[in-house]
Amino acid sequence: MPGKCITCDEIKAISFDEATEQEMASLAKALAHPARIRLLRILASNNGCLGSDLVGQLGLAQSTVSEHLRILKAAGFVHAEVQHPRTCFSLKPEALERLKGLLVAL
């Protein structure tokens, strides 16, 4: 996945105060289910937006996929855009870069 790599100076600049620890824990919690990891991988491998076809790709119930997407969206990993009659989902690579930076700085 192309994106801006975090530099050593940016890593050193990350301070691990209580708010940063909470942020990291929230991001990690959002990734703490195999279906969510699979969703991110599917979104990362597609250039465009995906909607209802995610259900077929995951083999899970619509309500289950919707709940996983809601959690990923709340954590900032996924962008959702309503394009009636469906919602289009795409990956937000900056959230993955933020998590990567936090993990490296840890």
Notable characteristics:
11% strand; two-stranded antiparallel sheet; 58% helix; single chain; elongated; mainly alpha; Arc Repressor Mutant, subunit A; 106 residues
Describe this protein's structure.
The chain has a two-stranded antiparallel sheet with strand order 1-2. The chain has one domain (8-105): Arc Repressor Mutant, subunit A (Orthogonal Bundle). The protein is elongated. The protein starts with 7 loop residues before the first helix and ends with a helix. A hairpin with a 2-residue loop joins strand 1 and strand 2. With 106 residues, it is mainly alpha-helical. The protein has helices at 8-13, 18-30, 34-44, 53-58, 62-74, 93-105, and strands at 78-83, 86-91. The protein is built from six helices and two strands.
Shape: elongated
Contiguous runs where pLDDT drops below 50 for at least 5 residues:
none
According to CATH, the fold-level topology is Arc Repressor Mutant, subunit A
Strand percent estimate:
5-15%
Order of helices and strands: HHHHHEEH
| Major beta-sheet overview | 2 strands, antiparallel
CATH superfamily assignment? Winged helix-like DNA-binding domain superfamily/Winged helix DNA-binding domain
What is the CATH architecture term?
Orthogonal Bundle
What top-tier CATH class fits best?
A: Mainly Alpha
Give the arrangement of secondary structure elements:
Blueprint: H1 8-13, H2 18-30, H3 34-44, H4 53-58, H5 62-74, E1 78-83, E2 86-91, H6 93-105
Antiparallel strand pairs: 1-2
Overview in brief:
This protein is mainly alpha-helical.
